[in-house]
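hey m, so remember when u said the tokens were messed up on ur end? i reran from scratch. heres the input so u can diff it against urs
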Amino acid sequence: MSLTSWLSLAAVCALGAMSPGPSLAMVLRHTLGGGRAAGVIAALSHALGVGCYALLTVWGLGAVILHQPLLFTVITWGGAAYLAWLGLKALRAGRQSVLVTGAMTTSATLAAREGMLVALANPKLILFFVALLSQFVSGDMDAWAKALIVATAASIDAIWYVLVAIALSHSTLLPWLQKRTHWINRLTGVLLIALAIRVVMG
């Protein structure tokens, strides 16, 4: 994988993680209810779930490339259309936010369990990874390159949510995020549409 491709992958993964949604709300709730440690545990558990989805997606796409190249082409173009749709949806979201910040009584075990479940129980996440990773997986890609893709997705997810948990425990990060939701949505939308155009143009 070239540096340019990796930077594109990393940027989309980062904006996907930063976009306000149920995962961010979950980390916020555990941080508010159990402190920094609970928030970090929830963040790392969520990243593990993301890594599992990324790994399954890379393996599955690799098999499709080898045995069903036409199907992979369909998936790639379908993925481009899905990314463009997500981009348009993000642009239209404006200031809309689904953050739920009420404190809750929590524990390390509960934070770990919910962090994993929020990732694995989100059907949109697997669709996102199929659409996204189909743009980066190739037939001649070796195991190290695939591992890099999986590690990138999981690591960026972990880094972002751990930073959220740490910053929220002693700062005003939440109001900052809420005030800038529309800019996060716009940036995410533009990048997703640009990636879709890149696929269509070959």
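this time it looks ok to me. Residues 22-67 form the longest helix (46 residues). if urs says something different then somethings off w ur setup not the seq
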